[in-house]
Amino acid sequence: MNSQNYKTDEDEVLFRPIYHTGRGFYLIAAVLLLIMLVAGTLYVSQLIYGLGVTGMGEPVTWGFYIIDFIFFIGISHAGTLISAILRLSKAEWRRPITRMAEVITAIVLAIGGLHPIIDLGRPDRILHLVTSGRLQSPLLWDVFSITAYFTASTVYLYLPLIPDIALLRDRGDKHHKLYEFLSWGYNGSPEHKKVLERAINILMVMVIPIAISVHTIISWIFAMTLQPGWHSTIFGPYFVVGAIFSGIAALLIIMIIFRKAYHFENYLRDVHFDYLSTLLLIMSLLWFYFTFAEYLTGFYGHEPQEMRVFFYKIDGRFAPLFWLMVVCNFVIPVILLGFKKLRKIPGILIASFSVILGMWLERLIIVIPSLANPRLSYVRTGVYFPSITEVMLLLFGLAALGFGFMMFSKLFPLISIWEIKEGREESVHNVSQRLKGYFPAPQAMHSMEVEGHHEQ
Amino acid sequence: MNNKTIVILQVFSVTLIWGLVLSITALCIHLIHVAYRVHDVPDATVAISIIAILIFWVLGSILTYVFVGLHKQRG
Questions:
Q1: Nearest to A186 by CA among A157, A172, A165, A158
Q2: Predicted-assembly ipTM surpassing the 0.85 threshold
Q3: What class does CATH assign to A26-415?
Q4: To probe the interface with B, which of A135, A197, A202 has the most B CB atoms within 10 Å?
Q5: Which of B55, B59, B70 has its CB closest to that of A184?
Q6: What is the pLDDT of residues A315-357, one digit of tens each?
Q7: Closest CB from B6, B49, B73 relative to A135
Q8: Segments of chain A assigned to CATH 1.20.1630.10
């Protein structure tokens, strides 16, 4: 493509963030880097002084790190899972949002995967998993499933990125050699398109069970124990629903922020927010159903140790957090997304932030109360209060997500350009063909009518 | 950086993926060995290993298929 052509590219606005960097970008990047630097320094102090710098102790031996681990891995379901389902179902409105969703997955998986290592206190002990790990333990299943999901998600992000990398390579402006290296010689020929399409099709089928298995296995870390409040058969689907729920909220927040920052209003339109927020509303109702079912069965059994944890959450020390979680995950999203008048960008943004806070609280409410009230009756109720190190490492994760996303936007288009172009050229025809397949053909209807007359 | 260097780096990146795949396979085989040695539910270890190894081999194969496919058809 010569310089004349690309200057008049109808999707030029999608390339602009790569070539133009405003002052605001540097300012936000500096703030995020500062947060990460402070958190990094505090982590070094944890390495030196051990886990004594955290609020963890007996019997609450898991704290913010494990909560953040579940939370970040949950958000990762935004991406690949939603993107794969939308691709598989041939939802044409997916085209401008799949890339962002896939980037979220790759970044938060890397952040989330670090947290169990941070929680170890001595990261060198991770080597024990290699030398004498027990593969029948859900903890090791987690290591494998997250590694598989991270690998699959990265490949699933990379393959649909190749045609866009080739576009950037052909423009020849910036990082030319990097794009040359990453494009793997893609030239947009029908043969190349076929190879990529086939690989993406296999991956999108493969990535859905992997994504579901990841959060199911995380839930099994809890559910496989006999700890009150954890030993539940619905924990697997409950965690998966929560993960998709928080993932959609994170995707909506990122979409709204980057739409405003990079002027993507023409690509991320009201219809995308309308569809995704409807999905968020459905997930909110589903989350409420699962939460209700989980707590009702526990209450009905009335097992003494179970009830200790139950009342600790409902009207004990954790009651304010529990009810705030219900408000954030159910009340606010239902009010803001259930009424068309309120389901506008500001309402969707508030609902999404509310869900993110609510889902983080949900992870907190699952982890801490059960550990604070162990089955052994002679153990006194534990107390956990996070230290500044733990709070800063949570902020580190959030800052790393923002920073990672910003860095990605400086190298690659945040919206899949080739998919947009393909959509413009082929979608109308494809959808109309598909619509014809949904309904009986006029001839078939006519012959049915004729047959009906004969029978009469 | 000339084209030859870029191709070498591309081959190296695919080799890295296979390095990961083979490392995971080796780890699984080692853990099966450990499970047999200490009589610690080896059959479950074998079953889980088969699933893990299969997933990584498929992922490695998909990437290799794309790499070979794009390079073979290079005009």
A1: A165
A2: yes
A3: mainly alpha
A4: A135
A5: B70
A6: 999 999 999 999 999 999 999 999 999 999 999 999 999 999 9
A7: B49
A8: 26-415
